[in-house]
Amino acid sequence: MKEYFKSDEFLIIEEGFEPSYNRVSESVMSLGNGHMGIRGNFEEKYSGDSLSGSYYAGIYYPDKTKVGWWKNGYPEWFAKVLNGINYIGIDVTIKGLELDIAKCDVVDFRRILNMKQGYMERSFVAIDKNNNKTKIVSKRFLSMADSQIATIKYTVIPLNYEGEIILQPYLNGKVVNEDSNYDEYFWEEVDKKADDQVCYLNMETKKLGFRVACTMKYEIYNKTKKIEAQQTKSVCQEGYVANVIKIPVKAGDEITLNKYISAVTNRDYSNEQLEDVSIKEVTKAYDKGYEALLEAHISKWDEKWEENDITIKGDVKAQQGIRFNIFQLNQTYTGDDPRLNIGPKGFTGEKYGGSTYWDTEAYCLPFYLSTAPSKIARNLLIYRYNHLEKAKENARKLGFKGALYPMVTMNGEECHNEWEITFEEIHRNGAIAYAIYNYENYTGDKKYLADYGVEVLVEISRFWADRVNFNKEKDKYMILGVTGPNEYENNVNNNWYTNTIASWTMEYTIKSLDYIKEDHPTIYDKLLTKLELKDHEVDKWKDIISKMYYPYIEDKKVFCQQDGYMDKEQILVKDLPEGNLPINKNWSWDRILRSCFIKQADVLQGIYLFNERYDLDTIKRNFDFYEPRTVHESSLSPCIYSIIASQLGYEKKAYELYLRTARLDIDNYNSDSDDGLHITSMAGTWMSVVYGFGGLRVKDDELCFSPFLPKSWTGYSFRIMFRDSLLSIKVDDTIVIELISGADVMINIFNNKYILTKTNKVEIDNN
Amino acid sequence: MKEYFKSDEFLIIEEGFEPSYNRVSESVMSLGNGHMGIRGNFEEKYSGDSLSGSYYAGIYYPDKTKVGWWKNGYPEWFAKVLNGINYIGIDVTIKGLELDIAKCDVVDFRRILNMKQGYMERSFVAIDKNNNKTKIVSKRFLSMADSQIATIKYTVIPLNYEGEIILQPYLNGKVVNEDSNYDEYFWEEVDKKADDQVCYLNMETKKLGFRVACTMKYEIYNKTKKIEAQQTKSVCQEGYVANVIKIPVKAGDEITLNKYISAVTNRDYSNEQLEDVSIKEVTKAYDKGYEALLEAHISKWDEKWEENDITIKGDVKAQQGIRFNIFQLNQTYTGDDPRLNIGPKGFTGEKYGGSTYWDTEAYCLPFYLSTAPSKIARNLLIYRYNHLEKAKENARKLGFKGALYPMVTMNGEECHNEWEITFEEIHRNGAIAYAIYNYENYTGDKKYLADYGVEVLVEISRFWADRVNFNKEKDKYMILGVTGPNEYENNVNNNWYTNTIASWTMEYTIKSLDYIKEDHPTIYDKLLTKLELKDHEVDKWKDIISKMYYPYIEDKKVFCQQDGYMDKEQILVKDLPEGNLPINKNWSWDRILRSCFIKQADVLQGIYLFNERYDLDTIKRNFDFYEPRTVHESSLSPCIYSIIASQLGYEKKAYELYLRTARLDIDNYNSDSDDGLHITSMAGTWMSVVYGFGGLRVKDDELCFSPFLPKSWTGYSFRIMFRDSLLSIKVDDTIVIELISGADVMINIFNNKYILTKTNKVEIDNN
């Protein structure tokens, strides 16, 4: 099933309908606009296998946790991104027979995702059991220009018959989550109405009372001629409203239904406002009309591509792959709303509860930092700032001072349900701190530290200071009982990465406090009071920094992933017999835990983050030791190794690792894209190109590059925003860096400095 | 609520009804006869809080496992001991008003468990809202003489009214398990009938098709006069059958309903036979009559007490406590059926799934070895022998050779649902091997090794040999990624106990093979073929034995519980601030895991099992180190420490530890007896007395004692079976050992040998 979709620079094309692959296609063809998202489901009824998905940003359900044996401190619930009102549905009846692709012969089926313009288009001919042939063409988009609006143009063309067709556009709130822990139904109807002008449905979630209200309006054309009078009625059932439109047709007619939908939630309006706003919004859209809405939508996408396209020459698959990743990231998060974040599956599936993980800080933040105005990345930081009190509660619950950010969350509370993750995978706390550094370093917005950042840093440092354990005999601080980024080890002592990021957090916190004291003394005094920060606390941090224990493999001169790692049988991935990989599908959990195999970058994650601390020899030794032991069974892994390989000049290895995620979902590489797309790992793929091949770094306020051209490509280019300047970087025989817009900027290429101005591009020979 | 029950040498007495304590009382008042068991629920309707429980040995339900994130190798189901047909129910209507103790004034309430004779008796006066006063007296038992029969004598005495009472004895199959993972209903009705002569109900479990068929018959008396003609009808509803008996009464009448019940299952009969057998059995019981049935039942209990009573002088609470334990163990397992085993809660509750744990081998086996003919203990071994193929499958599932016995099971398959237990708590495998040694050593039945034992030993040794990991650098075999008996550590490396018992298993297997080769050469040859055992395998075991790694704390000269244990902050239990204990109620799981505190005997468990290997100084150093770090939050822990304390002459400590479980359930010490009783730990309490205070050991076929008298007691005595001789051991100012029955036996007291004959008791001064 690899290479199921046709290659194209800007399109994802499915030709011919393959029911067994439908869930994957639905995932790949997902649309979103930051406010909401839908999987590539069919409008008309489909009784075959399908994962129906209509998601609304920030609307979730606290499902009762499912654990075998409850233990103190376990989260009570696991937050689920909710499948909500399905607004795409249009049932079709052809001369009394309901159209169901699963029950027809389907000819000339094409489903296309147009990434350039952000829409999905579908066409096919259905031949039903009465031998009536009907061509269907549908095109839909969720407006990037007006995020509360979705529009569908649905055309029915009778090819060989005359008679009556019925179109039944509907809103259906009776939807379920496949991943409901106890097969519960999460929604209740609040209100509805249905007449020929407008269908309105308002649903509320149980427990938290989130409301989603959708309204739809429609118009009917035969070719270009609007049909005013149809024989219609409306349907109003529990959680369901619809219009029923009967149309007499003859062969050659082209009956088009334009369905306009508004979707508003009580995250943005009061419950009382919902009906009014929803109807007003859809009416406005209806009045603008389909073409005008589409035009505004495309124009927004043009802006996005202008800001963050990557082009690749000489490899159309690679081009398609990278654009797919950029496209999905832009669909998932637009950065307008600091209450939102980036779920691992975005709006494309239910898996992982759709909540916020450390993926955001470690993988997504760099993408948004480099491809959007800095306020977008800042909103990702503010999201965590706003959760600080919850993070403090979370630490308290486990018996600690300071703040422990959750492994998974929707509202700041922990909602994962495995002790080895929630209690032990605490390195995530460091990622929150690192994101502040990353933002400050990239944007130069140091003031953020004083306004928000340092409060988070101090509380995280307090957590680390309470979580370490002083070993008198060894005169060292240790961190016992953790799970590192490599989740194929649980409950280990002294994970090198965790110890490293913990100590680094305290260092950076002290440095940040010093800066605020110096540059913003008034704010500093207020902070001391607010945080009740005392000198002895900072002294304790200094003591921990100086006496932190870092496991080390003496004879190999590499950092040791954790205590006891070398007691394991040391085998290399290449020596595993065929059929063993991926080990998470072929081995018991027990065997995985006891093996030396590494799921994802762990020591290397640290070397990636704190790159400047280590000389090339050290980096090389660690890469050479750990890479052959890493199975990369997280989509977040290869990008980190790829970036380091690029740094080491391992160009072939860097490209090979890049390939492992570049087309992960398009090619359903891990056979799991049916569940939804790997949204957060897409940012990692982007990083492999820009940070890896392009060698982007920001050091001491200077933008640095050290690009190389992978052998399989004839050239590539990317665009990045740096402190509100937009740059284009093009790499083929020459390296050309241009300033597209914004102020002049000092850049550094292969350790040479250049000043980039609008009239002065930098061009370097690349042979 | 401590000391809720009155003290008595042979009775457990509840005086006055305390609804909030009802679940505990129901647990404590449970009855069982090896074949079935019931909690101390009321016969009449009770709308207050209650855990209704009617259990049938070996009838279970494979409930779908509840885990947060599925991982390879997880068991698909968690076996639940099933709540089945409730046969004790008798609804009572007084002049049109249903009797419900929760809605009456209740006076003179007494609920008594008579341990001497094995019945529960209850009496009270209920004053309903019409001010009708009714005295109720009920007495019931599950026959030890005929395990398929239960009998209830239920007397209703109108004190201040005349009119009609209705008695409605019933069988109710519509029962649920409170611990159902997905609130499922586990039973379906097969068949029923109800007439005035007989009510019959046959229920079948979903999935596995276990059937339980119950039949009831009744008779009515007014005082001693049988009432022949009542106005009756019968009720026949889904899963429910009943007789409805209307009786005109006047004050002073004593209306007694004798309810006879048979309960048979398709574990013992074919589905076709069930109805016939069930009706035949109950008819036989009915014909014998209540008094004759009770007499036969009591006579069986007399035999039990004759065999295994422990008397304690000078401390009635201690006397009551130890008898309660012996009583419950005898109720739970009679040893007639090698398909059965001893669930942690016996027939007294649902918790822990009621399945077989290593508790059986480590704690219960010694009790049955010493208190019953050897075939009873042998049946416990045969149980595991019969599960050998499943244990091999279980090892295969995790990728290992040999056999891994499950942590929890009903039918040999693993059915626990936490990876840190199922995959890692593999020391349990050693307990299965040790039980074979224990049996052989105690009974002298070496032939068992050849007939059954060694097959189990070889397969367990094969597992260990595959599970160890050779560390070239250290030239040692290691066992990584385990959970020891101390479940407050998960996924540790080189748990001393696990490494010890693994190596010991291989040693004992080799020794057993040598014995069979020598003494049973024909069997030996057959075994080699059957097991496909090769010399190189045995050589590998020898290599592992000689190079096994045992962590050691050099400066303290004690065995180290596992790698890294000493990196933990070393605090003692006595230094914990008040309110921290028990830590499993007050600390997060995370904090528990990272602490040095030990849930239950771990290193000490090894020292207990392999006692003869260690000199007293070594034992003392280890006890002195580990005991102050042990929180004993498993009911299986204090007994082991108590036995070692006795051995070390720490008499006060031994007694103090003994007290922690002696009255665990009677005093609801851990506030969890509402869930059911701690059946398997009761055997541990028995061991504290017999192995600890009495100093019982069997060394080289010799029965050894080194008794002491705890200061709070004026004397104690116990009886034990040793190789079919019954001995009485009495300890007060003198130590008197008598042979009650069976052949002469050589004994050893304080290292002096004596020959015990029927005419020659041994008497030693104890001052």
Automatic annotation (TrEMBL), chains A, B:
Segments traversing the membrane: none
Domain Glycoside hydrolase family 65 C-terminal, first and last residues per copy: 696-756
Glycoside hydrolase family 65 N-terminal domain ranges (all copies): 13-267
GO molecular function: carbohydrate binding; glycosyltransferase activity; hydrolase activity, hydrolyzing O-glycosyl compounds
UniProt cross-references to Gene3D superfamilies, sorted A to Z: 1.50.10.10, Glycoside hydrolase, family 65, N-terminal domain, Maltose phosphorylase, domain 3
UniProt record similarity statement: Belongs to the glycosyl hydrolase 65 family.
Stretches assigned to the Glycoside hydrolase family 65 central catalytic domain: 323-687
Catalytic residue positions: E487 (proton donor)
SUPFAM superfamilies documented for this protein: Galactose mutarotase-like (SSF74650), Six-hairpin glycosidases (SSF48208)
Pfam families, per the entry: Glyco_hydro_65C (PF03633), Glyco_hydro_65m (PF03632), Glyco_hydro_65N (PF03636)
Organism in which the protein naturally occurs: Vallitalea longa
The protein's name in its UniProt record: Maltose phosphorylase
Protein's GO biological process: carbohydrate metabolic process
Binding positions (substrate): W358, D359, K599, Q600
Domain of life: Bacteria
